[in-house]
Amino acid sequence: MTSRTFLRTAAALTLVPLLAGVAHAQNALDDIVAKKLLVVAIPTDSAPYGFVGTDLKPQGLDIDTAELIGAKLGVKVELVPVTSANRIPYLQTKKADLVISTLGKNPEREKVIDFTIAYSPFFQAIFGPKDLVVKAPADLAGKTIGVTRGAMEDQEVGKIAPPGLDIKRFEDMNGTVSAYAAGQVQLMGVGASVAGNFMAKNPQVSTEFKILLKESPNYIGVAKGEDKLRLKVNEIIGAAKASGELNKLALKWLGRPLGDLPS
Amino acid sequence: MIITFDFPAVLAEWPLLAKGVAATIGLTAVSASVGVTLGVACAWARLHGAPWLRTLVGAYVELIRNTPFIVQLFFLFFGLPGIGIKLSPEVASMLAMVVNLGAYAAEIVRAGIATTPRGQIEAAQSLALTDMQVFTRVVLPPALQRVWPALVSQIIIVMLGSAVCGQISTPELSYAANLIQSRNFRAFESFIVATLVYLALAMLLRRLLTWAGPRFIFGH
């Protein structure tokens, strides 16, 4: 390929997304009602929020929340499995109407997508073996820690990391947990549910809670500017909180009540 | 909705991208040189080795060529610690690429060797060259010359395949692009930049190898 054809190919490549993006307007809710189909991005690597059951179907708190919203809207729900790293691109590229995927709210994310009110509690922390002394962030120096790229833990660990902490980033929660289980990293920064699930299944690896990274309730993500859809979902969540339906889901999957969630 | 591009947001992270490019080039350089050497050794073993060696090398080639690269990589990184062998992400990636390229290169080189005219070998033998001399001086150089374009393509495929090494946290180019887009959510821009860099790397590598092959590897 000559350098001129290279430049032409490059120019053509950059134009493709431009053309593809022209047709959209802010009418996701109308589209959902018209098609009778709600496409929801869900996790399959974050038990008990979203995981694959023995029948190979996704299940968990996030999936039940998606079904609840679908039922209230009177439409069918299509579940799309996503990872921490690609869930926001799914929303930006309209491959999903909603992201219900243990999504925490932070200013960087608020720049590119909108959030509904919170629907479930969550916190992230650093976990590690019992015989490794880690009490304060300074103890992390010289250690290796696995996190999931693009997840909240990645940013939070970055904030408290002392020089000399080796941060290894993996594509999804399974990668992070596998690396920890295999001893490829000494510590892991993950959500409490992932760690709890891991500890229950792998008692031979004596794992314990080390440092709290962040209390971060989960929100539902909607594409930027889809206010009609966002307000409708807010209304549904508000009603489900009041009626105790969300509390029932929290008890079923997390074994703890919903608690006070920011609205 | 017209998508607005924000390339400066991605290009501002150039140190990350530069490190990624360096890692990709490093992985490719090692896997290409060691992998092709391994391939030549395996090709020789499959044609001239003892029966047990032929079976062993044959099994290696079939195992690697019939399983996905990412599975081989995960086996090295997540599997081997089970028997006490812990490899760093970089070493596991390098080893996976060498082993992968070695198997494909073995078959490509073997094809080149198999087409050597019988008379050429007999002529060399009648000049009292040893078997090793016949192989390294008479058979191998023209064989490599015949299959060089195919080998170069395979090396480029392995270089592009290094993109999955980011999955085990090797900080190569795709890892850098993914990390940047997970920080600023500029997925289009990140991957467009990564695409163009891969394209440029692949074209440069092809030119380099096409130029270097006849001069340094099977030169006359």
Question: What does this protein look like?
Answer:
The complex is a heterodimer of chains A (263) and B (220). Chain A is an alpha/beta fold and 263 residues long. Helix content of chain A is 40%, strand content 27%. A 5-stranded mixed sheet of chain A has the order 5-1-6-13-7. In chain A, strands 10-9-11-8-12 form a 5-stranded mixed sheet, with helices on both faces. In chain A, strand 2 and strand 3 (50-52) form a beta hairpin. The radius of gyration of chain A is 20 Å and the shape is globular. Chain B has helices at 7-11, 14-48, 51-65, 69-79, 89-114, 118-126, 131-161, 173-184, 187-217. The mean pLDDT of chain B is 93. At the A-B interface, helix 1, helix 4, helix 5, strand 10 and helix 7 of A face helix 4, helix 8 and helix 9 of B.
Index terms:
heterodimer, A: alpha/beta, D-Maltodextrin-Binding Protein, domain 2, 2 domains, 5-stranded mixed beta sheet, B: 220 residues, mainly alpha, MetI-like fold, 0% strand
Short recap of the structure:
Chain A is an alpha/beta fold.
- Taking all Cα atoms into account, the compactness measure Rg of chain B is 21 Å
Q: How would the global form of chain B be characterised?
A: elongated
Name of the CATH architecture of the largest domain in chain A: 3-Layer(aba) Sandwich
H/E order of the elements of chain A? HHEEEEHEHEHEEEHEHEHEEHH
What class do helices, strands and sheet pairing of chain B give? mainly alpha
Number of helices, counting only DSSP H or I runs of 4 residues or more of chain A: 10
Give the radius of gyration of chain A: 20 Å
Task: Please render the helix and strand layout as text.
The complex is a heterodimer of chains A (263) and B (220).
Chain A: H1 3-20, H2 28-35, E1 37-43, E2 45-46, E3 50-52, E4 58-59, H3 61-73, E5 76-82, H4 87-92, E6 98-103, H5 107-112, E7 113-120, E8 123-129, E9 144-148, H6 152-160, E10 166-170, H7 173-181, E11 187-191, H8 192-201, E12 207-215, E13 218-223, H9 227-243, H10 245-254
Parallel strand pairs in A: 1-5, 1-6, 9-10, 9-11
Antiparallel strand pairs in A: 2-3, 3-4, 6-13, 7-13, 8-11, 8-12
Chain B: H1 7-11, H2 14-48, H3 51-65, H4 69-79, H5 89-114, H6 118-126, H7 131-161, H8 173-184, H9 187-217
Helix pairs in contact in B: 2-3, 2-5, 2-7, 2-8, 3-5, 4-5, 5-7, 6-7, 7-9, 8-9
